[in-house]
Specification:
Elements lengths: L2 H26 L7 E5 L2 E4 H17 L4 E4 L14 E8 L1 H5 L6 E8 L2 E9 L4 E6 L4 E3 L2 E2 L12 E4 L8 H12 L3 E3 L4 H9 L5 E7 L1 H13 L3 E2 L8 H4 L1 E6 L1 H12 L9
Parallel strand pairs: 3-4, 10-11, 10-12
Antiparallel strand pairs: 1-2, 4-5, 5-6, 6-7, 7-8, 8-9, 12-14, 13-14
Helix pairs in contact: 1-2, 4-8, 5-6
Length: about 270
């Protein structure tokens, strides 16, 4: 796929994310009308998630009928042929903040081909911030180029930390303790995708979560890499779309220090 085709897909993805964001924002403004149901411990969904995903799925199928679709709310339907491009979508990342009337949620889209993320879009409708990246083409927010933090130590900024109930609490608490012992400080907003966008923008110096699904992680990881940062290799390996993985992304100057703090001498973390 050439650069012109990728740029067309990126522009289309931004347009679709903005439309979906406006739709979800209208739901956010009328939270009292939403029915909330649980998918598991600390894992909630509403009709806003379902309807926003359906909107994106329909728009993508119309615009790119030859592509596969992997969405959080319909992941059981996922099928893709060898060599087929895949749109990976989280219609509302940060559903718990969303239903709690907290503004840290976003729309996340990525285009993946042969295990490589080629396009990333993360849209924050509340702040009207459109984070976008194309592989090899850099990253931007609302058209302005993004660059990760220039921090050279963990003491020079905030590190986003996520939690997953798919792993033991120690997988989060251990890295948190070691981060603090390294004079770092943690931040949690409830949206892994938005946190990764903030790493790309230099607002956070890094982000770690012991397990993320592809729809939460792959868009933000490309943003970080295209803004000059680094992410762990598992994000572009076979299996991430089906199983998810641990996620580490950071500015280049602190990536190794953050990796050491997260691993704490334990080799089998899935990060290397």
């Amino acid at each position: 796929m050439n650069e012109a085709e990728l740029e067309q897909r990126l522009e289309a993805a931004c347009d679709m994310a903005r439309t979906a964001g406006s739709f979800a924002a209208a739901k956010f403004a009328d939270l009292g009308s939403l029915t909330v149901h649980s998918k598991g411990v600390q894992d909630m969904a509403t009709e806003a998630d379902l309807e926003t995903e359906a909107l994106l799925r329909s728009a993508l199928a119309e615009r790119f009928p030859g592509d596969a679709f992997l969405g959080e709310e319909s992941c059981g339907d996922f099928q893709a042929s060898e060599g087929q491009g895949i749109w990976v979508v989280d219609p509302i990342d940060g559903t718990q903040p969303f239903i709690s009337n907290i503004t840290s949620w976003c729309i996340a889209l990525a285009y993946v081909l042969d295990n490589q993320t080629l396009i990333a879009v993360i849209y924050d409708p509340v702040r009207d911030e459109m984070f976008a990246a194309r592989r090899g083409g850099g990253a931007s927010v609302n058209g302005r180029a993004l660059t990760t933090s220039s921090a050279a130590s963990l003491a020079e900024g905030l590190v986003g930390l996520g939690y997953s109930n798919r792993v033991a609490p120690a997988a989060t608490l251990g890295p948190m303790q070691r981060l603090l012992e390294a004079q770092g400080m943690f931040h949690r907003c409830g949206s892994g995708a938005l946190s990764l966008a903030y790493v790309a923008a230099g607002r956070l110096i890094g982000y770690y979560e012991p397990h993320m699904n592809a729809w939460d992680a792959v868009a933000g990881a490309l943003l970080v890499r295209e803004a000059g940062g680094r992410s762990n290799p598992a994000l572009e390996q076979e299996g991430v779309l089906q199983q998810g993985c641990a996620v580490l992304a950071a500015a280049d100057g602190v990536y190794d220090a953050l990796l050491a703090a997260v691993e704490g001498g334990i080799a089998d973390t899935g990060l290397t």
